[in-house]
Amino acid sequence: MKILIVNAGSSSLKYQVMDMTDESTLAKGLIERIGIPGSCLKQTVGEDKRVIELPMKDHIEASKQMIMALTDPSHGVLESMDEISAVGHRVVQGGEIFTTSTLIDEACIDAIKDNIPLAPLHNPANLMGIKACLQVMPDKPMVAVFDTSFHQTMAPQAYLYGFPYEYYDRLRVRRYGFHGTSHRYVSKRGAQFLGKNMTDLRIITCHLGNGSSICAVDHGRSVDTSMGLTPLEGVLMGTRSGTVDPAALQFIMNAEHIDIDEMLEILNKKSGFLGVSGVSSDMRDVEKAAEQGNKQAQVSLDMLFRGIKKYIAAYAAIMGGVDAIIFTAGIGENSPELREAVLSNMEFMGISIDREKNRIRGKEANISGEKSQVKLLVIPTNEELVIAQDTKELVSQLS
Ligand code: ADP
Predict the structure, then answer these.
(1) Fewer CB in 10 Å around end: N or C, the chain?
(2) Mean pLDDT by 10 residues, the chain (399 residues)
(3) Are residues 376 and 271 in the same domain?
(4) Range of the domain at 254
(5) How much is the pTM?
(6) Given 147, 218, 224, 323, which residue is catalytic?
(7) What's the 286 CA to ligand 1 centre distance in angstroms?
């Protein structure tokens, strides 16, 4: 069975074809600048990289180009789209409605629409991708896989904010959490790596990329996570502030004569590594600047290390202990410096890192010191595989 995985943004569309007989990736593609000048499709098949520049006015046009690229006689991987059994779509916000992945039908589309106020930037783009695919592949079963659904197991004391209860009751203001497919994948894979079942373990997963979130996975269930109503809450990120004192916003807005939209733009796009270091949103640039003696760059790194440490200790406390800590995504997989800084001086919690084993990037590894009671792992994430697996499972139930 071959599955097409689609992740649509407002002006982009990422896709992948997976062969589920061995869960291998046959082709990967990225279409950028949809609806704006300079549209471009990049497709990778093994060593073969292909770039096609041509105008694509909307997601429907982009989906048609994706199909042409996938079925191209010399650079494609499919003889025809008949080989694709189903399409799996990434959807950011499933609200409280979607606790698991689901087959896409009219009711599902309406529910994704209902969640637009909770994710005004993401859900409309995800819907555009779904609708475009339904238009160009009307006979294919389609599945939606939500970033939020893994966290729907959280209890009210984890997901409620200290606002008047009516804001939850009427407006559904609460912690939803994100990166659920990644936290789910690495916790399961990490348990397999240790030869254990995730339902026997208390795991803390650290997804650290441009956006970062930490999750407490207690016996296979998400019981707390650092992102909230939106992906702005939690630790310091590339351009996002993470958690701040909400009253500081009024102070800054009054002093700088800016409105709430401008303030949120600053919190989302101009803060984090970029804002504090003044150098870059990219961890590599910030590390380089810090090495060269830039104090603001160093303090931004120290803020992230400290923030992650605090979540690790807090989540161990709520789970009554921790058996494994897992690092994943761009920074988690590739920065030995971050892992060492976060995990050092944690012997009081039974955590000790092996500095030699920690010198790896981008591959599965056990980096625990000999005496560490807590297993410390690096597990590269694979959100596309989770989407493909869920799609396969739901589609198999159809026949
Ligand atoms: P996204 O959240 O956009 O998917 P990624 O998971 O790709 O982001 O992570 C991007 C981050 O990973 C950037 O801050 C980048 O600097 C960092 N990163 C990638 N490679 C390395 C590396 N070798 N060392 C340190 N950081 C790295």
Answers:
(1) C
(2) 95 96 97 94 95 95 96 94 97 96 97 92 93 95 97 98 98 97 97 97 97 98 97 96 98 98 96 97 96 98 98 98 98 98 97 98 97 98 97 93
(3) yes
(4) 196-383
(5) 0.95
(6) 147
(7) 11
